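Thread: Newbie trying to understand structure tokens

Hi all, I'm a second-year student working on a class project, and my supervisor (Dr. K.) asked me to get a predicted structure for one chain before our next meeting. I've only ever worked with sequences, so writing a 3D structure as a token string is new to me. If someone could post the tokens and maybe explain what I'm looking at, I'd be very grateful. Here's the chain:
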Amino acid sequence: MIDVVFDLGSGTLPTTYPFALWAEIVRHAPQLAEEKQVGVLPLRTSESNEGLLLPNRAKLVLRLPATLIGAASLLNGSTMQIGSSQLQLGTGRTRTIQPHSTIHAQLVTGASDEAIFMDNIRAQLSEMKISAKLICGKRRTLAGDQHTIHGFSLVIHDLKPEGSLQLQYAGMGEYRQFGCGIFLPHKVISGLNEA
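---
Reply by user tm_fold:
Sure, no problem. This is what the structure looks like when written as tokens:
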């Protein structure tokens, strides 16, 4: 697995942008829709009255099997229509995924009950033979015209390098194409309640 990073122009996006963004990615590079492991990392945005603001140096990052780098290159220089905004992509460059002892996902899909969700996560980690500590964040919802996705934000810490890479490669839960279940490096945490 590898990350492919594209520069983006600044702009304003609707809060439901992940659905339209995936549709545009697939329109330009249809082969990416055929591989379930392809993920779109959540964009770094800030909220405003008009929607979500993209900073000047925003990046679009796709996480995908290295065999699909050629398919991702079809996005080079493309223009994507997201709501009333147009996003202009630069040329993609690859970035190796690095191990970090603390990783975070904005939204991992799963049970609506937090205790059941956490039990399921622990079971998945056990199956993967990964030892780590967990911090469950708040319940989150990503809603669009045709999808409503529920889950929790999740921090996994005290990871060994191989476990960190395994989780960043595999992700957890469903809907990688909408930014769910994708783990990114997180600042080291101490003094929080752990499960």
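A couple of things are worth pointing out once you decode it. The radius of gyration is 17 Å. The helical segments are 17-28, 69-72, 114-127, 161-170. Feel free to ask follow-ups in this thread.
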